[in-house]
Amino acid sequence: MSAAAKHSQAMFFRARAGEKVTNPVLQRALKKAKPLFVGKRAKGVAALAEDGLDFEALRSTAENIRNRVLADLDVWLEIFEERATARGAEVLWARDGEEASRLVVEIAQRHGVTKATKSKSMLSEEAHLNAALEAAGVRPVETDLGEYIVQLAGEAPSHIIAPAVHKTIEEIEALFAKEHGRPAVPRTSDDIPAMTREAREVLRQHFLTAEMGITGANFLIAETGTAALVTNEGNGRMVTTLPRIHVVVTGIEKILPTLEDFATLMRVLPRSATGQSISNYVSLLTGTRAPAETEGPEKTIFILVDNGRAKLLGSAYQDMLRCIRCGACMNHCPVYFSLGGHAYGWVYPGPMGSVLTPLYTGIENALDLPHASTGCNQCGSVCPVRIPLPKLMHRLREDQLELGLRPQRERWAFRLWGWLARQPRLYRWLVRRAAGYLRWLADDSGRIRILGLAPGWTVGRDLPAPAGKTFHELYAARKRH
Ligand code: SF4
């Protein structure tokens, strides 16, 4: 079992989903957040159209750029290594998260680091980097506000761009009061700036005393050997300019060939994530501090991590490597917004996680995730790089079946259904009977409250009873007239 699989809780999706859907505090937090995400993206896309730009055309260009990278990933990575090294950075390679963590710990120990400030990096979550640093006596301090909150709470992020979206203001106030050593006070959303200021004051001391800064990278630009960092808080710049060592831990698929490609991707990334035309801070980090410069690290080290990515190249799942981690798929997913991110059990939640988790941690370690979909294709229709997420989830389900990973009962049921579908007279007779039975189960309002054979479907919602005739009956009647 891989290290990622060992840490994956994705096998417990069903049990966790049951818990999350009945958690009133979580449901309150999610209910507030969803319209914000969806509304902001819709406004961002509409504003682009007002400027005479076509978002759909930009999506196609972004998709093509990402496909061009994946077609020659090894070449672009070599170019990146050469250009980054020429600008004084060091480039290291890690096969998996464990190796990435080991490399970061070795760098910290070699340079006598006792504290490291961190800007948001999902790869460091894959690598369980904080635990590795703590075990080696290095204190990791998350500085993105959402990440800071979940670190204080001892939790994992529940969303890739809004890590603490599952928390209510009351929960955050209780946490700050406890961790910052002060009495709790009643809070409303008007107090958010004050609470942010409080976190900033605590974090400032860490920025000034950390010897090492650790970040991910939204993109790596091959032609210049640059890491592009896109954030909405100033923390990314503090982490990359104040400490003497800057370590970038990111996946090998994050490469873009040119700065022009980066400019194109930046037209779709912030709009898809938060609806902004551009994020508050866009930093292009190249090399180390030059002798005449007053800020920047003395040492920049890139750790480029595979952790299951390379094996997807040339496979039926290659499209997934186009992902630019915008979060739009989860923001529009009815399943994600019923459960929150923690139900998914690993680093990536929502539709992208339902594909990535089985691919990175092993298909047998996340059996329920490719089924955590209503098949509505909201995710596929908003993805800025046109990843066909529902298609990939279907493909994973097929693989589960081919590998004999589905329960015997389910396989028999599908075999029986397949046989019945080839007996049209019997099939029609049974469908008529089933429709009649469902109508009989319904109450006066025409809804089925509890369905005996599949109670899971009606535990949290009503099922409308079939109305009128079956499709075959209607079709036959139409042909007769
Ligand atoms: S799969 Fe698409 S929508 Fe989802 S995070 Fe990745 S790029 Fe964004």
Please render the helix and strand layout as text.
Layout: H1 3-7, H2 13-21, H3 24-50, H4 55-71, H5 73-86, E1 90-94, H6 97-110, E2 115-118, H7 122-126, H8 129-135, E3 139-142, H9 145-153, H10 169-179, H11 192-209, E4 212-215, E5 219-221, E6 226-231, H12 235-241, E7 245-251, E8 255-256, H13 259-273, E9 281-286, E10 299-305, H14 328-331, H15 336-339, H16 350-361, H17 378-382, H18 389-402, H19 408-421, H20 424-441, E11 447-448, H21 455-458, E12 463-464, H22 471-480
Parallel strand pairs: 1-10, 2-3, 2-4, 4-7, 5-8, 7-10
Antiparallel strand pairs: 5-6, 6-9, 11-12
Helix pairs in contact: 4-13, 16-18
The structure holds iron/sulfur cluster.
Given the structure, what is the number of helices?
22
User: Judging from the principal axes of the Cα atoms, what is the shape?
Assistant: globular
Percent of residues in helices:
40-55%
Total count of strands: 12
The appropriate CATH architecture of the domain at 56-310 is 3-Layer(aba) Sandwich
CATH topology of the domain at 56-310: Rossmann fold
Keywords:
single chain, 481 residues, alpha/beta, Rossmann fold, six-stranded parallel beta sheet, 51% helix, globular, binds iron/sulfur cluster
Q: Could you walk me through the main structural features you see in this protein, from its secondary elements to its overall organization?
A:
- Among the domains are: 255 residues, Rossmann fold; 68 residues, no CATH class.
- With 481 residues, the chain is of the alpha/beta class.
- The structure holds iron/sulfur cluster.
